[in-house]
Amino acid sequence: MNTAESTGSTSSSPADSVPLLQPCAGPDGRETLAHALPPIAAAAAAATAASSAVTASRPGMSRVAPQPGDARELGDTSSLLHQGVRRSQPVHIRAVRTPLDRRANEEEELQAASWPNIPNPFPELTSPAGSPVLTGTSLPPRQPGAKPQVAWSPGSWNPNGGLGTSPLLDVKVVKLFSEDGTSRSLEIPAGTSARDVCQSLILKNNCVDDNSWALIEHLPHLSLERTLEDHELVAQVQSTWGIDCDNKLFFRKNYAKYEFFKNPLQFFPEHMVSMPYESNGSIPHSQLIQNFMNSSSCPEIQGYLHVKEPGRKSWKKLYFFLRRSGLYFSTKGTSREPRHLQCYAELSDSGVYTVLSGRKMYGAPTDFGFCIKSNRASSAKELKLFCAEEEASRTCWMTAMRLFKHSVQLFQNYRLLQQRRNHLGQLNVTPMRNISENTLVAMDFSGRKGRIIENPAEAQTVAVEEGQAWRRRGCQRLGVVGSPSPCQPSAMSIAIHKTQPWFHGRIPREEAHRIISQQGLVDGLFLLRDSQSNPRTFVLSLCHHQKIKHFQILLFEEDSKMFFSLDDGNTKFSDLIQLVEFYQLNRGILPCKLKHHCSHVVL
Asked: Where does the Ras-associating domain lie (predicted)?
């Protein structure tokens, strides 16, 4: 028996039939008893011999001298291996399992297959693409003498560069300002929307969430500002700013943000909405506006605009058409033929801003300016400036541009707010009843039992007496203790309105215009202020049909009592709080009821 035959016979025998001692050829050719190779060592020896045979059979390859310890694990059988065998690569050898082991393994596999499929809560830690640990096969070839490089996944800590840029771990710091100059810094994830930031500030400052709070992007060096849409990412907007710029984000109310969904006819005048060719004027204006709000195909907005010529200080008046594809102007009067239309601006990669100081900053012909600013623009030379003849025209153009730019997303934002309001209303255990004036009756509680007053004259007399008694109790409560005339209004009763959020103190008319315009030109938006012409009177500034009107509140004295009135004393009130509460329920001489007050919050 030669060595190759002995090795082959040893490796080919089954593991369970190998005896502890077996005959083998000794140095003198006689058979002796030697320890049998263990199954794993025998298999390794066979694999090594086969590998050496293949290596020796290849042309151009020489044998390698055996190294000491190459077959150390074989014990006394090292002399049986060929001299000059080259070590082969490791070979996976399956372990021999008994039937009991196979049965246990099958039971484990069946049990694992019956487990529910639980999603991985940390995919970024176990994903091969996002793992910071690299295997040997994925490492790139390294040049001689180069230092080893480690690839760091996004969001993991890099000792050379700090924190990565994963959206899950990337935290931004934004600074929010209020109208009074106070500010507050917030740490937000990179994917936080404007609505989420507003909701956080509402909770932190205990504000009333009436779906009118918004973030305002203010660019002082360009005298521009705009309201961020609810779905816009705050960090993404902030990333478009320059390093040395003084841009700010304001937190304030904007009642006109979604008002055009409630009252579209007021925002889209009939003379500015052009009919499509196929309608031939058969579609009513109200139906056209509904199609404009609900369908994907929108009518055109048309009208004259003053436009600033590029590179010049002069302005030119042109006739423009606004379509979903962009803003066009006619080269021939008001012609809308395609050969006469020239594209002036696109809205896909731009924002629509309100110009704050158009006359002073850009020499605008009117105060109703707006502009289209590209997201990459940083200087005034890159702006496309426009001026409208009136506020209604500017509002129509800017609202239509918002709709064309954001399309269905704008309506979805509005629907989400409505659904949230309805959900909060359902959570209210005791909802307020909608009580109309027709369901109210006059009652007399002077006796032991209450009775309904059916006589109108008697009801009027009781109402007057009750009002006088209420004023008397109010004067006694606010008057100075021990005063001989408790009905005489004290300093507290005269100045109690200063604690109300709708009172803005001694501000000029221009400042009142600015505050109301910033918080949205909607019907019923108001504020009260001191009169600058008459120190003993007050002024009610009210918005109606996108115009701001001012009404003087006079102070009357009757029977040694002081009253406030808006209608020359026909309707008198003991303080301004009663006056505001009355006109919130009744229009009176005003063009509309008082609905929203201009408020400011301290951050």
From this structure: 170-256
CA 418 vs. chain centroid, Å, equals 17
The per-residue b/e assignment along 490-508, b for 16 or more CB within 10 angstroms, e otherwise, is eeebbebbeeeebbbeebe
| The domain defined by 259-416 carries CATH number 2.30.29.30 | yes
Write down the pLDDT at residue 565.
93
Tell me how far apart the alpha carbons of residues 17 and 19 are, in angstroms, rounded to a whole number: 6
Residues in the chain: 603
- The radius of gyration computed from the CA coordinates of the chain, to the nearest angstrom, equals 43
Look at residue 57 in the predicted model and tell me its pLDDT. 45
Closest by CA position to 132, among listed 170, 163, 158: 158
Under CATH, what is the fold of the domain 485-597?
SHC Adaptor Protein (3.30.505)
HSE-CB of 515 using CA atoms within 13 angstroms: 25
| Average pLDDT, consecutive stretches of 10 residues, N- to C-terminus, the chain (603 residues) | 42 42 46 44 48 45 45 44 55 56 64 55 48 42 44 38 47 90 91 94 89 94 95 93 90 93 87 68 63 64 93 92 92 92 92 94 95 88 94 95 89 88 64 46 67 73 60 47 42 71 93 94 95 90 95 88 89 92 93 92 79
What are the tokens at 73? Answer: 């694990």
| CATH 3.10.20.90 residue window(s) in the chain | 171-253
CB of 120 within 8 A of CB of 126?
yes
Residues forming CATH 2.30.29.30 domain(s) in the chain: 259-416
Distance, CA of 116 to chain centre: 36
Residue 85 is given by DSSP the state P
**Annotation: CATH topology of 171-253:** Ubiquitin-like (UB roll) (3.10.20)
Sequence-ordered list of residues with C-beta below 8 angstroms from that of 150, at least 6 positions apart, any chain: 132, 134
pLDDT of residue 4: 41
Contact present, 305 and 318 (Cβ < 8 Å)? yes
Using CA atoms, how far apart are residues 13 and 368, in angstroms rounded to an integer?
99
Q: Directed axis angle between helix 3-12 and helix 39-57, to 10°?
A: 130
CA distances from 402 to 135, 227, 348, 515 (A): 51, 11, 11, 22
Best CA proximity match to 393, nearest among 305, 299, 261: 305
* CATH 3.30.505.10 residue window(s) in the chain: 485-597
Sequence-ordered list of residues with C-beta below 8 angstroms from that of 349, at least 6 positions apart, any chain: 374, 375, 376
CA distance 24 to 183: 93
| pLDDT at residue number 334 | 93
Q: Which sign, positive or negative, has the C-alpha torsion 329, 330, 333, 337?
A: negative
Report the Cα 598 to chain-centroid distance in Å. 24
User: Cα–Cα distance between 582 and 593 in angstroms, integer?
Assistant: 9
